[in-house]
């Protein structure tokens, strides 16, 4: 089945009224992924698209710009491992080149080309990524875990005596940035404001551009401080690296790592805790020693990966993917969560996945997440320390009352209310 995009989808088209079965779909019958009703059930919409189009489906993003949403596991891997055909360089994007992605566009902060390893391929990618991976590799998991344990204890101490907490707002949402400020050599108090700005950018809100400017300004000041007074931290290691990165390159890679590490690790911690609290088999296996916590995290990354959709890839030439005709300049969105649930590789989604790391939670290929060892160390240590401190942790509401907030890239637990026996440190 081949779906041809209209030459230029118009933002002037009106969506059907709320409650209409076609609400969230453009007159061309393409789903608007930026529509609030579509995002409210994006997981369900993805399965509708899989049934209708197969592993590659035509959709619309902000401004009714056309894109391809890739749902199949095999098709996602083909894109991730073939940068010569599916490039990370957004300058290939036809709509951006032709002026349909203005600076104030909600996707502009994460699609406008920048001197980043995630926006280049080939030799330049190897140079920039090498600097990032080498610098991150200077930090051992053991040292990261010490930071995580310290901050976990501090956060738990705030609510341990009350016997109740929201493990999203009071724990998962705060911990990763506290740890990252240590790796960045920043004061602890910078964490909350940076976390809010990062989330705003990734959600593509109307204030995303202003939030992006705040992040850029804060990190530029950090680079200037570290050039004057280097230390044992990630910015200093980037500055010292033999790749000879300029200030702009260093600043933008700091922003990249900060963004990726915070948002994905918040989700990984929250989703792991939700599974511990709602799946009796999981909790029984975990406490009984039949499933290690790292194994449990891998199951979470299959079922509820930290990032739902990865933007983006751009076709460098006309090609075919999943029976669809892809044109040069087309944008492709990688449906990581949908790929993990592809019936072609997981016919039974209820079956546990032990020792299998072929999920796409951290992407794959040359652009695979370079900081995944940090995310794993933070989530693993955080959950383990929390369960040790509060061994009788239990959900305070029925599982059916848990709420989710979904954007194009992420699906968040809004809150995870729990109860436990009050204690003091």
UniProtKB/TrEMBL annotation:
Domain of life: Bacteria
Signal sequence residues: none
Alphabetical list of InterPro entries matching this protein: Cyt_P450_B, Cyt_P450_CS, Cyt_P450_sf
Ranges where the record places region Disordered: 1-21
Similarity comment text for this entry: Belongs to the cytochrome P450 family.
The protein's name in its UniProt record: Cytochrome P450
Lineage of the species this protein comes from: Bacteria, Bacillati, Actinomycetota, Actinomycetes, Kitasatosporales
């Amino acid at each position: 089945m081949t779906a041809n995009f209209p030459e230029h989808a118009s933002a002037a088209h009106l969506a059907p009224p709320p409650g209409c079965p076609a609400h969230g779909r453009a007159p061309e019958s393409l789903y608007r992924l930026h529509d609030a009703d579509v995002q409210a059930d994006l997981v369900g919409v993805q399965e509708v698209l899989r049934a209708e189009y197969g592993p590659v489906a035509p959709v619309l993003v902000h401004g009714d710009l056309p894109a391809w949403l890739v749902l199949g596991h095999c098709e996602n891997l083909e894109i991730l491992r073939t940068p010569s055909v599916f490039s990370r360089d957004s300058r290939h994007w036809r709509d951006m080149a032709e002026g349909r992605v203005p600076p104030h566009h909600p996707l502009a902060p994460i699609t406008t080309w920048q001197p980043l390893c995630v926006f280049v391929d080939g030799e330049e990618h190897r140079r920039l990524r090498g600097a990032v991976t080498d610098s991150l590799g200077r930090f051992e998991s053991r040292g990261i875990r010490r930071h995580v344990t310290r901050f976990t204890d501090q956060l738990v101490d705030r609510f341990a005596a009350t016997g109740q907490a929201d493990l999203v707002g009071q724990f998962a949402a705060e911990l990763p940035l506290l740890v990252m400020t240590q790796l960045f050599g920043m004061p602890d108090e910078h964490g909350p404001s940076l976390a809010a700005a990062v989330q705003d950018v990734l959600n593509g809100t109307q204030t995303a551009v202003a939030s992006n400017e705040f992040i850029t300004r804060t990190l530029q000041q950090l680079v200037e401080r570290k050039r004057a007074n280097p230390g044992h931290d990630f910015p200093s290691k980037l500055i010292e690296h033999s790749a000879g990165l300029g200030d702009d390159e260093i600043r933008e890679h700091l922003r990249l790592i900060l963004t990726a590490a915070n948002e994905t690790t918040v989700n990984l911690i929250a989703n792991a805790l939700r599974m511990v609290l709602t799946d009796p088999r999981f909790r029984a296996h975990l406490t009984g020693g039949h499933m290690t916590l790292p194994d449990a995290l891998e199951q979470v990354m299959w079922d509820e990966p930290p990032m739902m959709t990865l933007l983006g890839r751009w076709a460098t030439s006309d090609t075919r993917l999943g029976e669809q005709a892809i044109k040069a300049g087309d944008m492709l969105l990688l449906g990581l969560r949908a790929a993990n649930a592809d019936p072609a590789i997981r016919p039974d989604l209820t079956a546990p996945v032990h020792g299998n790391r072929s999920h796409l939670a951290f992407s794959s290929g040359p652009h695979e997440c370079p900081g995944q060892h940090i995310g794993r160390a933070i989530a693993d240590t955080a959950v383990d320390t929390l369960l040790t401190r509060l061994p009788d942790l239990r959900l305070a509401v029925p599982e059916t009352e848990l709420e989710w907030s979904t954007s194009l890239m992420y699906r968040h637990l809004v809150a995870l209310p729990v109860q436990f026996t009050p204690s003091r440190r």
